[in-house]
C-alpha cells in the first residue's frame, strides 16, 4: 500500500519540479530583461514620450515631476514594463513547453496557432495605441490650453502620470486585441458556437463600449478608437470560425468516408 502511494506521488513531484524550473527561467528572463531595460530606461522613455512631443509641436512643452523620487521610480516602472514586453515570448514558450507533453498531437496542432498569434495580436493593439490613438488623444487633450477668464491654462503633465497613461493605452489595446484568440479557443472547446456569437452581436456592441470606457481615459475619441476595432475583430472572429468549422466538417466527412470504406 505504501509503495503504491509513493509510486502515485512520483509523477506529481516530477511535474512540480519541472514547473519550478520553468518558473525560475521566467523569473530569470524578467530579471535580465528588466536590468537591460533599466540601463536603457532614458532611451525607452524618449520613445514613449515621442507622441506627446509631437502633440506639443514646435512650441515645446515639458514634463515635470512633483516628488524628488518620482523620476527614479519612472525609470523603474519603464524597466518593469519593458521586461514584461520583452520576456513575454519566453514566458509563453515555457508555458507551452510545460503544457505540451500532456496534450495529444491533435490538441497541440489546434493550440499552437493561437499561441503564435497571441504576441502578434498584442503587438497590433499596442502599435495602434502608440501610432494612432495616443497622438490623436494627446492632440485633443492639449487643445484645452489657452486663456480662461484672463488666466493662462497650460498643460504640465508629470512624468509619472504620463507614463501611467501610456501604459494604460498600450496594455488596454494590446490585451483587448487578444479577444479573437479567446473566442476561438472557447469555440474549439465547445463552449460557444458561431451561431451563438452571431446572436450575441448586439450585446457585444454594448460590451465593447463599456470595456472601452473602463480601459481608456474618459474621452470619446479614445473610447471610439478602442470600441470600433473590438467590434471589427469580433466580426473577423465570426468569419474565421466559419472557415474553421467548414474545414473541420470536411475533415470529419473524409474520416467517416474512409471508415465506411474500410
Which key features would you list for this structure?
transport; mainly alpha; 9 helices; translocation; 262 residues; protein transport; proton motive force dependent protein transmembrane transporter activity; 2% strand; membrane
Topology, element by element:
Blueprint: H1 2-39, H2 41-56, H3 70-99, H4 105-142, E1 146-148, E2 151-153, H5 159-176, H6 179-189, H7 194-199, H8 201-215, H9 220-261
Antiparallel strand pairs: 1-2
Number of domains: 1
Question: Structural class of the helices, strands and pairings?
Answer: mainly alpha
The CA-CA distance between the termini, in Å, is: 46 Å
Largest sheet: 2 strands, antiparallel
What's the shape? flat
Number of helices: 9
Radius of gyration: 24 Å
Strand tally, please?
2
GO molecular function: proton motive force dependent protein transmembrane transporter activity
Membrane topology: Multi-pass membrane protein
Transmembrane segments: 27-52, 72-99, 111-141, 161-186, 198-215, 221-243
InterPro entries: TatC
Textual characterization of the structure:
- A hairpin with a 2-residue loop joins β1 and β2 (151-153).
- 82% of the residues lie in helices and 2% in strands.
- Mean pLDDT is 85; it is low at 1-10.
- The chain has one domain (3-56, 63-144, 155-252).
- By secondary structure, it is mostly helical.
- It has a two-stranded antiparallel ribbon with strand order 1-2.
- Keywords: Cell membrane, Membrane, Protein transport, Translocation, Transmembrane, Transmembrane helix, Transport.
- The chain crosses the membrane at residues 27-52, 72-99, 111-141, 161-186, 198-215, 221-243.
- It is a multi-pass membrane protein.
- GO terms for molecular function: proton motive force dependent protein transmembrane transporter activity.
- One of its GO terms (biological process) is intracellular protein transmembrane transport.
Amino acid at each position: 500500500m505504501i509503495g503504491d502511494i509513493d509510486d502515485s506521488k512520483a509523477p506529481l513531484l516530477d511535474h512540480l519540479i519541472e514547473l519550478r524550473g520553468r518558473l525560475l527561467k521566467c523569473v530569470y528572463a524578467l530579471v535580465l530583461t528588466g536590468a537591460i531595460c533599466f540601463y536603457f530606461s532614458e532611451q525607452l522613455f524618449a520613445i514613449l514620450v515621442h507622441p506627446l512631443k509631437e502633440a506639443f509641436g514646435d512650441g515645446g512643452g515639458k514634463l515635470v515631476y512633483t516628488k524628488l523620487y518620482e523620476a527614479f521610480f519612472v525609470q523603474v516602472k519603464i524597466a518593469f514594463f519593458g521586461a514584461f514586453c520583452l520576456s513575454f515570448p519566453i514566458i509563453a514558450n515555457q508555458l507551452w513547453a510545460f503544457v505540451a507533453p500532456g496534450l495529444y498531437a491533435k490538441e497541440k496542432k489546434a493550440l499552437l496557432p493561437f499561441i503564435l498569434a497571441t504576441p502578434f495580436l498584442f503587438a497590433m493593439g499596442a502599435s495602434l495605441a502608440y501610432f494612432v490613438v495616443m497622438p490623436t488623444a494627446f492632440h485633443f487633450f492639449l487643445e484645452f490650453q489657452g486663456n480662461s477668464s484672463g488666466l493662462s491654462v497650460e498643460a504640465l503633465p508629470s512624468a509619472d502620470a504620463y507614463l501611467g497613461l501610456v501604459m494604460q493605452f498600450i496594455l488596454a489595446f494590446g490585451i483587448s486585441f487578444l479577444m479573437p484568440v479567446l473566442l476561438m479557443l472557447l469555440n474549439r472547446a465547445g463552449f460557444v458556437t458561431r451561431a451563438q456569437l452571431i446572436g450575441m452581436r448586439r450585446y457585444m456592441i454594448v460590451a465593447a463600449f463599456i470595456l472601452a470606457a473602463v480601459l481608456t481615459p474618459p474621452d470619446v475619441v479614445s473610447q471610439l478608437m478602442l470600441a470600433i476595432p473590438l467590434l471589427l475583430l469580433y466580426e473577423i472572429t465570426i468569419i474565421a470560425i466559419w472557415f474553421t468549422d467548414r474545414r473541420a466538417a470536411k475533415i470529419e466527412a473524409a474520416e467517416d468516408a474512409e471508415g465506411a470504406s474500410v
